[in-house]
Specification:
The protein is of the alpha+beta class. It is built from two helices and three strands.
Length: about 70
Amino acid sequence: MKKEYKVEVVKESALSSLFLGSSKMPIKKMEAIMNKYGQEGWDVSFQVIEKRRLLFFWTREAVVITFVRSIN
């Protein structure tokens, strides 16, 4: 049985990271992405949160979501 993978990256807002120093992850956006791929038969394989550089002095977090599904 073969498997197929798909990766989505969801980032926190750049403006709120610049002005507030940090912000919340966009949970509603993550839910929408997960529900969309779930309806297409994809399952979440794993997630990781990473910090990404924003300009010179700021960082923002991003969630990397890996989806998997079996193909025939």
